[in-house]
Amino acid sequence: MRKDWKKKLAGLIGPGGVLTSPFSLSSYSYDAGLDVMKPEAVVFPRSTEDVVAVVKLAASEGIPITPRGAGTGLSGGAVPSQGGIVLSFSRMNRVLQVDWANRFAVVQAGLVNIELQNLLRQKGYFYAPDPSSEQACTLGGNVGENAGGPHCFKYGYTVNHVLGLKLVTAQAEVVDVGGPCPDPPGYDLTSLLVGSEGMLGLVTEVTVRFIPKPESARTMLAAFTTIRAAAAAVADIIGAGVIPASLEMMDKVMIQAVEASTQVGLPSHAEAVLIIEIDGLGAGLDQQQALVEEACRKHGVKKLEIARDEKAAERLWAARKGAGAAVGRIAPNQITQDGSVPLPKLPELLEEIAKLAKRHNLLIGNVMHAGDGNLHPIMIFDGRDQEQVGRVRAASWDILRACVAAGGTISGEHGIGLEKKEYMSLLFGPAEIEAMKAVKQALDPANILNPGKVFPAPVGGA
Amino acid sequence: MVNQDILAQRLAHLLGAEHVFSDLETRARIKIDGIIPGLVARPRDASQISELVALARELKAAIVPKGRGNALQLGRTPSRVDILLDLSLLDRVVEHDQGNLTITCQAGAPLSSAYDQVEAAGQILPLDPPSAPNRSFGGVVASASVGPSRLGYGSLRDLLFGVRAVLGTGKAVRFGGKVIKDVAGFNLARMFIGSLGTLGIITELTLRLYVRPQVRQTVVACFDELETAAQALSQFPLPCSGVVAAEILGSRIKLKVSQLYNGNCLALAFAGLERDVQELVRRAKDVCARLKPREIVVLAGEQDRELWVAIRDLASGYRADGEGLLLRATCLVSQQTKLLMALEDLAYEYGLSLTIWAHAGCGIIYGMVEDGRMAELIRFTAQARSLAHSQGGSLVLESAPPAVKKEICPWGPVSPGFQLMARIKAGLDPSGIMNPGRFLGGI
Fold it and tell me: How far is residue B404's CA from residue B377's CA, in Å, rounded to a whole number?
């Protein structure tokens, strides 16, 4: 019976909707993380009904389904770790409804983030979560991972902007949860599904809220001679009552890498730079800027630059968002770690990471969403050298342990997937894992939706 | 049936006899829709709660949690109240992390215990449900109770970073933590918002704080018609940083704060840096002035504070032992004027005196009916609910006489996701002992 299912799948979705050639299966065997596993088929539904049909087949045959947006995830969420079907949402990429008066949009899961941004921008609105991969990543993927981006400190991350979802359950039911009206009675299933990594249901449509673009915005660059000074400036900016739209930090390794690749004029002698974006009413922007400047000066800022115009601001942002690409010039491989700590712990965490880099003999650069304590140490290495890979894994473990010890978490915005499932025990005890498994069991008793993710392997096998 | 004597004995052994109350006088003080609890238990900490839940599972005793008792009238009449779990001993502020802008409190702590401490550090806890100072943290989260600040500072989903709880399995768990972004595993912390103790007992939680704004001012404009107040509000592109609350006060609302505000008012609160607030106040006055208000007032300092306390506590005017209704209707923001006016008309039709107001930037409408005949209240609720549904929203009776709740579910019909909710509930509370019968669909 099992060998017939691929034919059945093609029958359900139509020609061109299913890939099974070895070459195409390889293309869908990885995401932006390290893990690789080939699926047995890749299917491209066009509608929620198509997804229902696929789930029905998979459920009856016991075939795992791994949902996939654009495969930009960094934790292996889209890797079919147990084979089976990769369900790609790339053909479900339409905007279904935009309600300008009530400021929400209903979109299919495969819509690319930037396309939503572009649509909204035309009328003076924006959708706040804008991960660095916004050019490629999809809204459905953003929901699966609860994606962030540099604007979370002021505007929140995906869960703060998703109002409702249409999902296909593991039993192939179509269910609408949440919706554009506030606080529907019952449990907040929307908030549970956001960040559930496709393990509790397949989201086919997303209702997001969007917000008016601030009247004006300004981007600033501040360079410091120590990381502690930069972190202290961050604390003082926030303490002064300014809520910057974005508050990003890069350390020396990253400054030099980015400067070598983009030549935007980052001060390459600095130990840390902040990229600060303030926004709001035109009337108050000068006052915001003055408070930011004061906080930076108090901590000995060496260079303070205000982007003269939008172009200049875009260049600074290109430097930040191009950090990953810049690192590619140094070594063939990189892993961006993703931990989060309470804000006051940021400087000591960075010092700890510097120590760990030495101990593990690794080059580690740091970019971070400093406003919300979300660190992204980037480990730069050569993946062809297994010994180096081992050191990278050991350093990852140590960094995440340090984040947890500081009262933080093992993932701020990238998810657990395959990459971090063994790290879950740093943060959770058996009771929490058991509760999460109970929820998984309640919604997907046959374990066909993205199996093998998030939960650590039971101690002693089994 | 639960053997109350055995239950009382074993609980006394667990918590100490002085923390278990079986006498009628104590029990009768805390009735839930007229039901007198079998006993009242007062645990000291999460580990005692954990043992208590395990015991309740063994003896099949139903547990109803209670914070400060403000939301006991919320929800359906419980099917059983074997143990009323009084959380008043879990009353500590565990940690105020100033630099991180978070506060961690035990579930039974009143909001008042955090307000002062937070304020002394130049910060605010932007949580202002009705009767706020005397509400418990756990109760506010479990009943998803919000106030006017929701517009500017977000819903509980935005403010709640972490939860410690004892699940219906008896296991003590911790989900989320104290950082803004946390995507490790399923986020079960947010599932406790509005769950009314049906998944487990919240024992501790962590909330986001904000830096106290430099300046805060409110523009109040009163009009002849409710519609005009709404029209004034529609000229503000919300949400907009700096606009922290926007309330529309219906025709029957009279607020006395240094002067009398007599119905059909729009109250807009602005907070932030001085120049932003000045600019927003100027714009608000311009917009309102063009619509010919009866008056426009700008309030700051103590008067601003008093006004918002009065608005926050409008719902506290409802007498929980009374014969009326307190309802919360939601709809799309663009439809709320229509719904407000339709509800006022409907009440008029039924001869009921409905006091109505709205967290107008959010699409949340509150209505309070002081009293009425049972049959009318039921028919009014049913019709009001279908009005809300026709605008895509919902209507919840936050408070109503048990006789009304018997005829009409306070939550309304179950939503499409209900079967998923029921499965999750069964997973986390396999014995069905956590506040049974109170929640949506009789969960």
Answer: 7
Which DSSP helix (H) or strand (E) runs through A365? strand A363-369
Q: By the CB < 8 Å criterion, does A421 face chain B?
A: no
The residue with tokens 């999809």 is A138
pLDDT tens for each residue of A451-460: 999 999 876 4
Model confidence over A219-242: pLDDT tens digits? Answer: 999 999 999 999 999 999 999 999
The ipTM is 0.96
Non-local (6+) Cβ contacts of A77 within 8 A are A31, A141, A144, A145, A197, A198, A415, A417, A418, A450, A453
Q: Which of B136, B188, B200, B133 is nearest to B160 (CA)?
A: B188
Report d(CA B283, CA A370) in Å as an integer: 34
The model's pLDDT over B187-221, given as tens digits with 9 standing for 90+, comes to 999 999 999 999 999 999 999 999 999 999 999 99
Asked if B359 and B150 count as a contact pair (C-beta separation under 8 A), the reply is: yes
pLDDT (tens digit per residue) in B354-378? 999 999 999 999 999 988 899 999 9
pLDDT tens by residue, B54-77? 999 999 999 999 999 999 999 999
Q: Give the DSSP letter of residue A199.
A: S
Query: Which residues, 6 or more positions from B49, have their beta carbon under 8 angstroms from its beta carbon?
Result: B43, B85, B166, B172, B201, B203
pLDDT average, residue stretch B427-433: 98
Place of tokens 């979705």: A13
Between positions 180 and 219 of B, the ones with CB within 8 A of A are 180-188, 190-191, 193-195, 199, 210-214
pTM of the model: 0.96
**Segment B376-417, tens digit of pLDDT:** 999 999 999 999 999 889 999 999 999 999 999 999 999 889
Taking one residue from A and the other from B, the number of pairs with CB-CB distance under 8 angstroms is 270
Q: Which amino acid is at A113?
A: N
Helix (H) / strand (E) containing A438: helix A430-443
Q: Token pair 């523009």 is at which residue?
A: B219
Which residues sit opposite A95 in a β-bridge? A107
Cβ distance B334 to A102 less than 8 Å, yes or no, reads: yes
Low-confidence ranges of chain A (pLDDT < 50): 1, 460-462
Measured from the Cβ of residue B116, the count of other Cβ atoms closer than 10 Å reads 11
- Chain A: residue whose CA lies nearest to B102: A342
Q: How many CB atoms lie within 10 A of CB B306?
A: 15
**Partners of residue B368 on adjacent β-strands:** B326, B355
Record: contact A412-B99, CB cut-off 8 A: no
Task: Determine the average pLDDT of the residues in B277-287.
Answer: 96
A75 touches B: beta carbon within 8 Å:
no
**What is the pLDDT at residue B33?**
93
Nearest to B416 among A103, A175, A441 (CB): A175
Looking at residue B320, its pLDDT comes to 63
Chain A neighbors of B99, CB-CB under 8 A? 235, 342-344
Residues of chain B in contact with residue A183, where contact means CB-CB under 8 angstroms, are: 144, 146, 155, 194, 328, 330, 364, 394
Side chain identity at A27, as an amino acid letter? S
For chain A, positions 167-226, list CB contacts with chain B under 8 A: 169, 173, 175-189, 191-192, 194-196, 199-201, 211-212, 214
> CA gyration radius for chain A?
22
Alpha carbons B68 and B77: distance in angstroms, whole number: 18
Residue B253 CA: distances (Å) to CA of A141, B263, B321:
47, 5, 22
| Three-state secondary structure call for residue B295 | strand
Beta strand ranges found along A83-210 (DSSP E): 85-88, 95-99, 104-108, 125-126, 162-168, 174-178, 202-209
Residue B302 has pLDDT above 90, yes or no: yes
C-beta separation of A93 from A108 below 8 A: yes
